[in-house]
Amino acid sequence: MPPTPRPSNELLSDARSQSARDSTEQPLISVVVPTRNRPQALSRCLNGLAAQTLAGRLEVIVVDDGSFAQNEVASIVALHPGARLVLRAGGGPAAARNAGALAAHGAFLCFTDDDCEPQDDWVEQLVKRLQRGADAAAGTTLSSGGVLAAASEITAHAPAAARPPDGSDLAFAPSNNLACTKAAFEATPFDESYPDAAGEDREWCARLTASGYGLRAEPRARIIHHQELTLGGFLRQQARYGRGAFRFRRRGGELRPLESPRFYGAFVRRAFAEGFSVGLLVCVAQAATAAGFVHAWTVERVSRPGFTSSIRARSSRRDGS
Question: What distance in Å separates the CA atoms of residue 310 and residue 75, rounded to the nearest whole number?
Fold first, then answer.
């Protein structure tokens, strides 16, 4: 049997030159990770990003949004050569994402949170979807386990059940598993008037699709969401979602109507399909969300100019004075 022919030195040189050209011609990808007071969770997230199949094309921008453990966060970021740190005094995740995107050099932006662990091809799958023509792409978020975390994931994804706009697969995608082109982001940055992790991603998706950009699903882009929830923390989270929902529905100055009863019925049925405990927690969560919504509505009414004067005037009329 004749020996296998070996490539000549000239062919090897050509192949290496082509590989080098391919590497330099590939666009840079920026991953933005807001963080606040969760250094251990951040470490797990950065380890997952360091293991990405496209790690050689990544820059990771960690935005510390006013952590008390700022030195520990800085030490963790310093362990990852491809990561750099942006410091903020605090302003919420919407402002933190904008700050990270402003510091980014990549043609593509990926967003995740510090308590998320991306699978090793997460960036690759999202970017492939963008390269096929999507303006924004959203992956699959998996719960790390437990009934509270499972119920939380269902409530967080509830707006995704709405009918997608024309040109999109999705009406909504949480910002912990999201990517977009730099151009799409520059046209629609996050609304920094949202102070909490609630409603700001919903508002962004609505504004993105209303501007004619397409939001596409990429189920193969998977992350694991490691939520550490107590019952009290879960209920506070849901009340925060309610406040965010009020801000979203108040957009434009008028309170937009709620979804139809059919929407909420399908949402609850899906929750019970995951198990009785999950379904029950989702029902309790809806009560907490409603309380948060009403609280935000009440605060807005009380803060309106002339509200106190009108209350006093009505009280005086009742007293006959």
Answer: 55
108 contact partners, CB below 8 Å, separation of at least 6:
27, 29, 30, 126, 127, 130, 179, 180, 181, 182
Which neighbouring-strand residues pair with 159? none
SS (H, E, C) 48-61: HHHCCCCHHHEEEE
Which CATH homologous superfamily contains domain 25-303? Answer: Spore Coat Polysaccharide Biosynthesis Protein SpsA; Chain A (3.90.550.10)
* pTM, to two decimals: 0.83
CB 122 within 8 A of CB 108: no
Pair of tokens at residue 306: 């002339």
Report pLDDT digits (tens) over 38-79: 999 999 999 999 999 999 999 999 999 999 989 999 999 999
Q: What are phi and psi of 297, to 5 degrees?
A: -65, -45
Which residue type is seen at 140? T
